[in-house]
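Our example copied in:
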Amino acid sequence: MPFTFEERIKTVEDRIKKACERSGRSRDEVHIIAVTKYVSLDTTKSALEHGFCDLGENRWQDAQEKWEAISAESDTSADKQPVWHFIGSLQSNKAKDVIGKFTYIHSLDRLSLAEAIDKRALQLGITVPCFIQVNVSGENSKQGIAPEELAPFVEKLSRYKSITPIGLMTMAPYEAEPEQTRPVFKTLRELRDEIQINSEYGNTITHLSMGMSNDFDIAIEEGATWIRLGTILVGKEEE
């Protein structure tokens, strides 16, 4: 892997553009979340300086220092203000710490969490855009609802007025040959398409959050609109 940030960016951009060309998509349809959970505050700031304003973190206790430090810097220009994405499993009792600080939640997977998000959002007077996490692969180690539970889950979300479901999220198994992840991403796209036809949220559930450092090319070919890139983009630092 290239060593400098600039070289990593070039590698990632080249692969995104080629994946878009192969699938007949526009580069503008694909958004990058720089996953900063394994890097320092300085590296996170470097990502912002290089134009990656969508930042992904898995746990509030790990993100707190970065969030507070960057939020406190009044000289951060408007075009370099971060948009925080919570991409890890979120405990219901931690929603109060996250909602209002993270713009997007990528891991909505149960009604108890929806209730906690909605309660906190109502207190703050905001609406929270959420991705519904689906465990397409069926792995016990993965979070998310089962594909067959998606439609009834979506319908029940209508009771939570401060939540706007905007898409689906999944994590594919790590494969030595990334092509083997294609069925997972294809299935999520098909589930999204079914929801768009059959749900009252058809006009809002448009996004697909899928694809990471190992397999984002395949995810883009299958319709990803948000890809979550950590090691390949910002690197990984030893603690």
Notes: Residues 29 and 225 are 6 Å apart (CA to CA). The longest helix spans residues 5-23. The chain has a mean pLDDT of 93. The chain has one domain: 5-234.
